[in-house]
Amino acid sequence: MTTHTVKILTYNVHKGLSAGNQRLVLHEIKEALGEVGADIIFLQEIQGEHCKRASQFDNWPSVSQFEFLADKLWPHHVYGKNAIYDDGHHGNAILSKYPFQRWENINVSVMRSASRSLLHGVIELPGSEQPLHIVCVHLGLLQLERDRQLRTLVSRIESHIPHHEPLIIAGDFNDWRGWADRHFSEDLGVREAFKDATGKHAKTFPARLPMLRMDRIYSRGLEVIDCQLLRGHPWHKLSDHTPLASKFTMTID
Q1: Whole-angstrom Cα distance, residue 120 to residue 137?
Q2: Which residues of the chain have pLDDT under 50?
Q3: 20: buried, middle or exposed (CB in 10 Å: 19+, 13-18, 0-12)?
Q4: Between the CA of residue 101 and those of 17, 122, 249, what are the distances in Å?
Q5: What is the model's pLDDT at position 113?
Q6: Which residues pair with 5 in a beta bridge?
Q7: What are the b/e assignments for 197-212, b being 16+ CB within 10 Å?
Q8: Strand partners, 117
Q9: Which site in 14, 89, 189, 217 is 20 to 30 Å from 24, CA atoms measured?
Q10: Considering all CA atoms of the chain, what is the largest pairwise distance in Å, rounded to the nearest integer?
Q11: What counts of helices (H) and strands (E) characterise the chain?
C-alpha cells in the first residue's frame, strides 16, 4: 500500500482580464500558475473564444485561453462551455498533468440568461487503478439557482461516483452564506479543506480586499495535508477572485 500526493488549485480567472476589464492579464496568470506547482487546476470563467476581444487586445493568444495556460505543464485538459454568445463563449476547464479516463460537461442552467454547468472528469493517477473524480463548479448568483444546481450536483455524484472512489469538488460556489455545506456534508459526506483547517471558509472575493467566502475545495476519500489562500502579489492585480490551493494524499492499494 502506497500514498500518492496531489496538489490542486481552483481559480475564477475572470476571462483573463483585470477586475475592471481594462487589461488582459492572461500572460501574468500563466506565469503565476506555473510557480504554484499544482498537478490539477480547476478554472472558472475561462474564455474559450471571443472574436471582439481577440481584435481589441494585441497580446490575445492565438489558441483558447485554457490551451494557452496549459501549454507544456498540463498536457491534459478539458473544457465545458456554459455561456455562449455572439462573440464567443466561456465556461469551466480542468488542466491536468495526468490523463483523463473520461469527462462530461453537465448543463445545470436554471435560467436561459444565466448559463451554468458542472465539469466532471475522471483522472488516471500514475501507478493506481483507482480513478480520481474531479468536479469543477461555477454556481449561479441567485439562491434559487444554487439550490437547484446543488441538488443536481448531489444527484450526479450519487449516481456516477462510487463512495469508495476519491472525489474532489472545487470552484466558485457564489455561496457567501455557506448554505452549500448542508447539501454536501449531509448528502455526500464531503469536507471542505479550509473550513476543516481554520473553522471557516476562505475569504476570496473581491481579490483586492477579500470579504466574501465564494470559492471552495471539498473532498472525500483523501486526506488534506495543506491548504493555501494565495493572496498578495501578483494575485490581487489579476482576477477579481483569489485562488485556493490544497494538497492531498490518496492511499493506493
Answers
A1: 9
A2: none
A3: exposed
A4: 32, 5, 20
A5: 61
A6: 249
A7: eeeebbbbbbbeebee
A8: 107
A9: 217
A10: 54
A11: 6, 12
Cis? peptide before 206, omega within 30° of 0: yes
Using CA atoms, how far apart are residues 68 and 235, in angstroms rounded to an integer? 18
Cβ atoms of 65 and 117 within 8 Å: the answer is: no
Q: Fill in the amino acid letter for 131.
A: P
- Of 36, 42, 40, 37, the residue nearest 11 (C-alpha): 42
Q: Tell me the C-alpha to C-alpha distance, in Å, between residue 155 and each of 94, 151, 159, 215.
A: 21, 6, 6, 21
Question: Residue 41 is placed in which grid cell?
Answer: 487546476
CA distances from 176 to 58, 132, 135, 200, 213 (A): 36, 28, 20, 11, 5
Residues in contact with 207: Cβ distance below 8 Å, sequence separation at least 6, in sequence order: 19, 231, 235, 236, 238, 239, 240, 241, 242
Rounded to the nearest 10 degrees, how much is the dihedral formed by the CA atoms of 202, 133, 116, 27? 70
Residues 6+ apart with CB under 8 A from 37: 7
Burial class for 222, CB neighbours closer than 10 Å (0-12, 13-18, 19+): buried
Instruction: Tell me which residue has cell 473544457.
Output: 79
Torsion of the alpha carbons at 133, 11, 31 and 105, rounded to the nearest 10: 50
Other beta carbons within 10 Å of 54? 14
